[in-house]
Amino acid sequence: ITGSVRAGSHTSAAVDALAAVLRGRDVAFERWDLRTRPLPIADPDYHEQVDAHPDAAVRQLAKAAREATGVVLATPVYHNSFSGALKNCLDHLSIAEFTYKPVGLMAHGDNLSAVQACDQLRIVVRGLNGLALPVQVVTSHGDFVTEEGGIRLVAPGVLERINRFAVDLVLYARLSEPVLRRLRPRAPT
Question: Rounded to the nearest 5 degrees, what angle is found at the Cα of 180, between the Cα atoms of 161 and 160?
Answer without folding.
Answer: 5
